[in-house]
Design brief:
By secondary structure, the protein is mainly alpha-helical. It has one domain (2-91). It is 65% helix and 0% strand. The protein is built from four helices and no strands. The protein has helices at residues 2-19, 39-42, 50-59, 64-91. It is flat, with a radius of gyration of 21 Å.
Length: 92
């Protein structure tokens, strides 16, 4: 019962989040008075469209397992960079 008293308020907030009225996303403009970008029309025109790209990938059926390499890419890049630095140091 003690654990229930702790978890229940958290669960209720989560359910409110899951089932509550979520405001639709508003269009975002690159600069005041400028054009807006749509991933479906412009592709990955700038890094601000990454969330749209990921959502589109989920919409067409990508599984979390298939998306995992996308999220691991920064770590793998850093590991590659570290290996390159070690290899360069070994050459001197």
């Amino acid at each position: 019962m003690q654990l229930f008293a702790v978890v229940d308020p958290i669960y209720r907030l989560w359910m409110q989040f899951e089932n509550g009225p979520n405001e639709p996303m508003r269009r975002n403009f690159a600069y005041r008075g400028g054009r807006d970008f749509d991933f479906n029309l412009d592709g990955l025109a700038h890094y601000g469209l990454l969330p749209d790209m990921i959502q589109d990938m989920k919409n067409i059926g990508f599984t979390p397992t298939q998306l995992q390499p996308l999220f691991m890419a920064p770590e793998e890049y850093l590991q590659l960079w570290a290996r390159a630095e070690r290899a360069g140091a070994a050459m001197h």
